[in-house]
Amino acid sequence: MMKKEKAALIVETLAEIFADKPALKFRTPYELLIAVILSAQCTDERVNKVTKVLFEKYDTPEKMLTLSQKELEKYIFSCGFYRMKAEHILSASADIINKFGGQVPDNLEDLQSLSGVGRKTANVVYSVAFHGNAIAVDTHVFRVSNRLGLASAKDVLNVEKQLMAIIDEKDWSRSHHYLIYLGRSYCKSQSPNCKECPVSALCEKNFKVK
Question: In 72-209, which ranges are E strands?
């Protein structure tokens, strides 16, 4: 089976099981941006609990910048890496106001120009908030893609490029969500549940990973 055929079959199989949107809760592109920044090394469930409180008063870059870094750290402490995340949130908020008139930019280049916003975060915001075509490679997508044989790379950028080469562009965004959910539900880092995985028959590492 060719890689493109395999990728298409995996995508359609997972489409019957998982949602094609993130578990993060948001109402605006700005809220999504902040939620994605907070989600690094943190569960979506925890982020949603934190942002439910945070966004009650601070749901725009202007409002967010009324907080000092110490004050913001208290809100996001439970998300981990709170000092770095608070710094990134405040810096990105300032950039949004100073460079883009208070609106989150709707293209990848400008999104990545925001302080503290990397390629993965930009891809998520671009694809989810602005319905652009992009594949964001986090730890789940990286692990699952290599195990399935959809990619063979030691860095996230090359995994992203390889996935883009074999998955139809119109499916990039939803594929990213499917692979994340697969990694969380079945293809876990330490104890993959290969026997119940819906795409185990297509996996190059099937029953070889302990």
Answer: none
Q: Which of these is catalytic: 6, 85, 120, 171?
A: 120
- Residue ranges in the chain modelled with pLDDT below 50: 207, 209-210
Does residue 155 have an active-site annotation? Answer: no
For residues 30 and 104, the answer to whether their CB atoms sit within 8 Å is yes
Here the tokens at position 123 are 């891809």
Place of tokens 């601070």: 58
- Dist. CA 40–CA 84, nearest whole Å: 11
CA distance 127 to 71: 31
Task: Specify burial of residue 47 (Cβ count, 10 A radius: 0-12, 13-18, 19+).
Answer: buried
Structure tokens at 23: 């578990």
The C-alpha atoms of residue 160 and residue 139 are separated, in whole angstroms, by 12
Question: What pTM did the predictor assign?
Answer: 0.92
Q: Which among 144, 24, 127 is positioned nearest to 79, based on CA atoms?
A: 24
| Residue 109 Cα distances to 53, 73, 112, 113, 156, angstroms | 31, 28, 5, 6, 18
Whether 106 sits among the annotated catalytic residues: the reply is: no
Round to whole Å and give the CA distance between 126 and 198: 29
Which residue out of 6, 85, 95, 138 is catalytically annotated? 138
pLDDT in tens, 58-67: 999 999 999 9
d(CA 26, CA 161): 28
